[in-house]
Write a structure and sequence with these properties.
The protein is an all-alpha fold. The protein has one domain. The chain has 2 helices and no strands.
């Protein structure tokens, strides 16, 4: 993975990074395994929305 200077990212991209960091923190804190059950499903759906926002969909 390459390092991208923060100043080269848009606000939307930075928000996506923050959301992914928070998602990973939740996974670790909850010691989630497999698909993570209902919480995991919500997490994946939320990350999907972030990806759509970045793609402009």
């Amino acid at each position: 993975m390459r390092d991208i200077p923060e100043e080269n990212l848009t606000d939307t991209q930075m928000e996506a990074v923050r959301v992914h960091q928070e998602a990973m923190r939740l996974v670790l804190q909850q010691k989630m395994e497999g698909e993570g059950g209902p919480i995991g499903q919500k997490l994946v759906a939320g990350l999907g929305l972030v990806i759509k926002k970045i793609k402009g969909e």
